[in-house]
Backbone:
């Protein structure tokens, strides 16, 4: 009764609400489950370093910085080498011009202060041109002769010129100020130069010990070789020097010359790159026994790190990056072999280094953020799937309850098309079942009547059929194209066979069969 | 709402609450983890510095900076990085170029040495830190008041003293003794300018044409000399060529025209190192650049004894000496960087550090406490050159008044012009004297030329 009362309201509700099919509901649920699965896979990939790997990003940043600075270094060093060879040629020419009747060999300059002064005066222009145009902080030329062979250490003392720039920083090219580090002070005074605070008259050839001897032995070809880093005597400046022999036309050794690369200049040229992973420092140094020798190489601006120019960095190759260990801390980095030649066949590397602590700190932070983000996503998807599964299953369960409790209109607010169909099907089936379950006496009555119709002739069946369509006997005779008498005869026989006595009794049976939806049991179409 | 529905919602909500609890817990754990692992690694704040202490030599300040970086710097995350060591004039130029943002100029470092004149010539002094913001009045009371006053510009303390120098006379005693032995010259003759230049002429004759004396800044000779004789050297931004100037000029001119005085460009240390001069007047800080030997043109070297004495004064003149010594300026940046720079300056001027610094570079300390400890520090000095210097310092402090150059933006230009021209004029005069020209005429011409060129 309650269901019947609710019937109009529910129908109104059904008409207002769009009902989702089970298939659609399953699709939505599946989509969330798939998203959750994708999230989980992503989560494992992040943890495993397969996606969003900071190491890969750091490698990319370092590679870019290394490529940029490597190109710059190669170009710069190539320039120095070019200027060194050119200077060697110029000086060779200058010295040969100076030679004549009195001075036939370079040794003839020994113990000749005036001739050496004149030679230095002539060489000054070559060196001054090189320092002003070569972009270097210093140029030098050592001649294989000394002003005084009687001195105790005369074999290590050699005449020459060493010009240096003061105010070494990035604007040297704009305001160059040259000073004389080695050479006759008269050359400085003639050319308006100051003497270096640690000036000396001659060179000690142990300044370039590894190059003096091989160069002087006419070993051909002699490439431009770079010294290891050295502190210029009694100064605070660290330099590396290019070394090229000076020879005359017949190949005779006259001396050695080259250019200076100053660490202060290198530092101002190769600034530290401030990245999210920390300050990226550029270095150029020789490698020996798996160690990067900063103590023999050049350190770029170490801003933001504790890296010092006196350190030796032990390195190991990793999957993508190298790890460097030193007294001032550990670093990630990359290195690439330079084409310059160092002493003792050492390989020189351009390298970029970033403090490991800061990088790892950022990597951990990023990893946690990513894990949190993806885990949140996965949890959201799972919660939504859970919510949807409950939200979708509940109407089904409610419908089942409705069916179990035989509520015709049901209590579920949300209706599912398939369930509604199922309910309709069950309902109609129930109705049929209700019909088939007539009282036994009526069922017997109907069954007996049905059995008796089997005995009817075709004409009598036709008569029954017309009666079921509410025809009169006259109309039946006309429809069957028989006489009324014949019709009456068939009617009499039919009544006898069906055990009825009147037409009204027959119509009661017909109505009963119709109501029970079993008319087809007695009348054939 | 059916019974089942209510039950489900109740279950779901309870489930949701539990889910939220778990989720919150997970986030909390991750945050704690990130907090633990994300402990900030102390990276250094790198402070760049331009200074003048040591020039091209192995600077004692650089050694102290390394010590700072390894101790206090490491603890507090400060790294001082020397990006330039030069002289004050070069740094003055570089600072002004950078401050004026001239094309190609370097960026100003965090810390740089400057005289007040450099700061006055800057287009905008508001880019500099006022030390009053970083030093308490109590802290500032520990510094010598006069030194702080020099760095005050427009009531802001912009130039901070870390060391002060004065002019000192250095004598190559080895050469002087050789000269003295044969001529009877005495060190006492060097106590007046008149005595010194007379001795210079005698040395010139005795040595066969070698110079005797070199002054680092002839501009200082004149301005201190004129002032010591009771007249003003400056009249506004012009020079006063009065009687006192004439006295100072005449005293110098005879020896200079004869060629007994070094008038080449460059610092006073140069001719002393090559044996081309015997006596010099220069900043006390130049002690770092003198070596214990001289090298001659034939490459043989000779060990020498170098002594320091107070600068000469004019007969009948006041004992007056130039006080020098620039200070540090800090470029305004972030509080973190400014604090780092100030931390370094406080460390450098702590009496024990300040004394190590100044006694290695030939300066005077800047705090009262360090002055009290100075005699004990001097006793510990092993180098006789430095011992002699600090004895001369003591004598100077006892007997002399200090002269401070005017703080004006035109000062450096005037100084540079005067210095270049006075040397050039006397070099030319000496050349003409060698050619036989009358020395009196040359002296007159020299003064006239100097006045003409300075008037331009």
Residues:
């Amino acid at each position: 009764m309650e269901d019947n009362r609710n019937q109009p309201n529910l129908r109104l509700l059904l008409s207002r609400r769009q009902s989702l099919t089970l298939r659609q509901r399953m699709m939505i649920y599946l989509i969330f489950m798939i998203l959750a699965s994708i999230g989980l896979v992503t989560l494992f990939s992040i943890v495993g370093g397969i996606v969003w790997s900071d190491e890969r990003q750091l490698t990319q940043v370092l590679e870019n910085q290394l490529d940029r600075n490597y190109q710059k270094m190669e170009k710069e060093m190539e320039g120095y080498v070019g200027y060194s060879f050119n200077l060697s040629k110029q000086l060779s020419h200058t010295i040969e011009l100076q030679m004549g009747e009195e001075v036939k060999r370079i040794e003839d300059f020994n113990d000749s202060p005036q001739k050496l002064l004149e030679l230095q005066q002539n060489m000054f222009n070559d060196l001054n041109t090189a320092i002003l145009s070569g972009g270097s902080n210093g140029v030098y030329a050592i001649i294989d002769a000394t002003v005084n062979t009687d001195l105790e250490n005369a074999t290590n003392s050699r005449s020459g010129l060493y010009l240096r720039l003061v105010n070494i920083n990035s604007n040297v090219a704009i305001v160059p100020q040259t000073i004389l580090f080695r050479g006759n002070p008269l050359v400085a005074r003639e050319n308006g130069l100051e003497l270096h605070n640690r000036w000396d008259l001659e060179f000690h050839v142990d300044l370039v010990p590894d190059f003096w001897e091989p160069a002087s032995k006419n070993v051909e070809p002699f490439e431009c070789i770079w010294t290891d880093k050295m502190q210029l005597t009694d100064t605070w400046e660290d330099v590396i020097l290019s070394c090229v022999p000076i020879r005359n036309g017949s190949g005779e050794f006259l001396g050695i010359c080259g250019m200076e690369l100053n660490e202060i200049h290198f530092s101002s040229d190769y600034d530290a790159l401030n990245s999210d992973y920390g300050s990226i420092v550029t270095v150029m140094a020789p490698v020996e026994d798996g160690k990067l020798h900063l103590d023999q190489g050049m350190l770029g601006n170490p801003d933001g790190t504790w890296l010092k120019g006196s350190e030796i960095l032990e390195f190991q190759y990793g999957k993508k990056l190298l790890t460097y260990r030193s007294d001032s801390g550990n670093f990630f980095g990359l290195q690439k072999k330079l084409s310059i030649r160092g002493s003792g066949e050492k390989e020189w590397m351009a390298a970029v280094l970033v403090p490991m602590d800061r990088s790892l700190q950022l990597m951990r932070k990023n990893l946690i953020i990513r894990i949190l983000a993806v885990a949140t996503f996965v949890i959201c998807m799972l919660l939504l799937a859970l919510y949807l599964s409950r939200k979708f299953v509940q109407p089904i369960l409610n419908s089942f309850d409705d069916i179990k409790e035989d509520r015709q209109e049901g209590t579920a607010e949300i209706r599912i098309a398939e369930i509604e169909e199922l309910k309709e099907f069950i309902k109609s089936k129930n109705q049929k079942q209700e019909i088939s379950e007539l009282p036994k006496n009526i069922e017997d009555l109907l069954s007996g009547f049905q059995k008796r119709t089997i005995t009817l002739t075709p004409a009598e069946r036709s008569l029954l059929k017309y009666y079921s369509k509410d025809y009169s006997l006259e109309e039946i005779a006309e429809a069957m194209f028989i006489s009324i008498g014949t019709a009456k005869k068939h009617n009499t026989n039919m009544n006898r066979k069906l055990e009825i006595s009147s037409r009204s009794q027959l119509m009661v049976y017909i109505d009963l069969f119709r109501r029970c939806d079993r008319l087809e049991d007695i009348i054939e179409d | 709402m059916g019974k089942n529905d209510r039950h489900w919602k109740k279950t779901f909500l309870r489930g949701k609450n539990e889910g939220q609890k778990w989720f919150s817990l997970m986030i909390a754990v991750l945050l704690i983890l990130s907090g633990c692992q994300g402990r900030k690694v102390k990276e250094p704040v790198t402070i760049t510095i331009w200074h003048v202490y040591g020039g091209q030599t192995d600077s004692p300040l650089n050694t102290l900076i390394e010590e700072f970086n390894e101790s206090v710097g490491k603890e507090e995350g400060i790294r001082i990085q020397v990006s330039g060591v030069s002289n004050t004039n070069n740094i003055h130029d570089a600072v002004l170029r950078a401050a004026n943002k001239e094309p190609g100029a370097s960026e100003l470092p965090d810390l740089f040495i400057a005289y007040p004149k450099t700061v006055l010539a800057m287009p905008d002094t508001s880019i500099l830190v006022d030390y009053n913001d970083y030093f308490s009045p109590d802290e500032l009371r520990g510094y010598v008041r006069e030194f702080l006053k020099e760095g005050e510009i427009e009531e802001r303390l912009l130039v901070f003293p870390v060391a002060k120098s004065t002019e000192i006379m250095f004598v190559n005693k080895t050469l002087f003794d050789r000269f003295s032995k044969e001529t009877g010259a005495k060190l006492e003759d060097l106590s007046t300018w008149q005595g010194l230049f007379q001795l210079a002429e005698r040395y010139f004759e005795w040595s066969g044409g070698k110079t005797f004396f070199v002054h680092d800044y002839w501009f200082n000779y004149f301005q201190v000399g004129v002032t010591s004789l009771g007249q003003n050297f400056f009249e506004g931004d012009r020079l006063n060529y009065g009687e006192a100037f004439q006295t100072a000029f005449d005293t110098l001119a005879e020896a200079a025209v004869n060629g007994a005085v070094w008038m080449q460009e460059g610092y006073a240390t140069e001719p002393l190192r090559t044996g081309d001069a015997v006596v010099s007047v220069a900043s006390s800080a130049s002690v770092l650049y003198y070596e214990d030997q001289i090298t001659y043109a034939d490459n043989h070297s000779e060990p020498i004894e170098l002594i320091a004495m107070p600068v000469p004064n004019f007969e009948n003149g006041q004992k007056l000496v130039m006080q020098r010594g620039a200070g540090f300026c800090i470029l305004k940046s972030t509080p973190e960087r400014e604090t780092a720079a100030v931390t370094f300056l406080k460390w450098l001027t702590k009496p024990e550090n300040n004394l190590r610094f100044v006694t290695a570079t030939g300066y005077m300390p800047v705090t009262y406490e360090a002055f009290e400890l100075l005699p004990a520090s001097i006793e510990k000095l092993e180098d006789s050159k430095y011992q002699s210097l600090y004895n001369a310092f003591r004598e100077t402090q006892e007997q002399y008044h200090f002269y401070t150059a005017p703080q004006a933006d035109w000062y450096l230009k005037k100084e540079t012009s005067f210095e270049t021209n006075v040397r050039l004029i006397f070099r030319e005069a000496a050349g003409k004297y060698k050619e036989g020209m009358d020395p009196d005429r040359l002296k007159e011409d020299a003064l006239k030329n100097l006045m003409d060129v300075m008037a331009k």
Remarks:
- Chain A touches chain B through 68 residues (CB under 8 Å).
- Residues 54-64+268-359 of chain A form one domain.
- The first helix of chain A runs from residue 2 to 16.
- The longest strand of chain A covers residues 329-341.
